[in-house]
Amino acid sequence: MEPTLFDPLCYAEETQKENTIVIGLPSLLSKINKETSYIISGDALAALKQLPDETIQICVTSPPYWGLRDYGIPNQIGTEMDIYEYLDKLVKVFREVKRVLKPDGTFWLNIGDGYTSGGRAYRAPDKKTDNGHVVRGLPFRPPTPAGLKPKDLLGLPWRLAFSLQADGWYLRADIIWFKPNILPESVKDRPTIAHEYIFLLTKNERYYYDYQEILEPAASGKGYRNKRSVWTVNTEPYPEAHFATFPPALVLPCILAGSKPGDLVLDPFLGSGTTGLVALQQKRNFIGIELNPEYCELAEKRLIPYATVLRETHETED
Fold this sequence. Notes:
The chain is of the alpha/beta class. The chain has a single domain (19-311), classed as 3-Layer(aba) Sandwich (Rossmann fold). The protein contains 6 helices and 14 strands. The chain has helices spanning 44-48, 83-100, 156-166, 248-258, 274-281, 293-303; strands at residues 19-23, 37-41, 56-61, 69-70, 101-111, 136-137, 170-178, 195-202, 216-217, 224-225, 230-232, 264-267, 285-290, 307-311.
């Protein structure tokens, strides 16, 4: 699906805000103004291929998880029957992310794990979200991947991390996102999963990382220490969204450590726009790419208090 001009309902703005968000294709993406933010409706890989080299300082994203949700868009990432096809698609997307990152740029990747289907192909309807909303549980369970057994933990975050490492990324850190308010599971033969991973990956051996911006209080209660690799952040549902969203508190340390005010932040799977929200709040601009036009509308609505929204218009070049 090629990126297309996104033009939802116009919103009347009475006051000019400090930030500007362009909705649509910014001059065919060939010339990015770092003083402006962009929301692009379209396929992540196709849109990224149009971005110029070494434009982005930091990428913070959470791609669709494998075999979990149906976002109502053909060929969406996450609905593949084969986990290795899913991983291959993400590696290709993030290869383009590496190209558009500046030489000292960083990439912060949130991804969760899962289990094999145990041989079950059917999944009961998702009553919590299957009420006419665009997002709902997949009606099927992908088959058990080759090399795994029924009820195996997929190890998907590490499979992706190692695939990216093999593709040339520097794998610098694995961060545990501990979720204290996680919903209980009905399982009785293993611990309840209460964490996800955030991987810090870099384009080169040396990169921009401001550790002082994210110092945390020392255990003694006196002074500060280097931030540890376990981050305790509650899940934080956005009331306008009918799907899981990034908590801003999870995105904030990534952006503070990996960028400076005025830098350009990228999220190729924008969703409800949390990465863009935190970027604007911290005096950064962003490029957000989202396949689902309804989510683009949701992100725009969420970000309107922080920016003036403009519609990009362009003429096709001969």
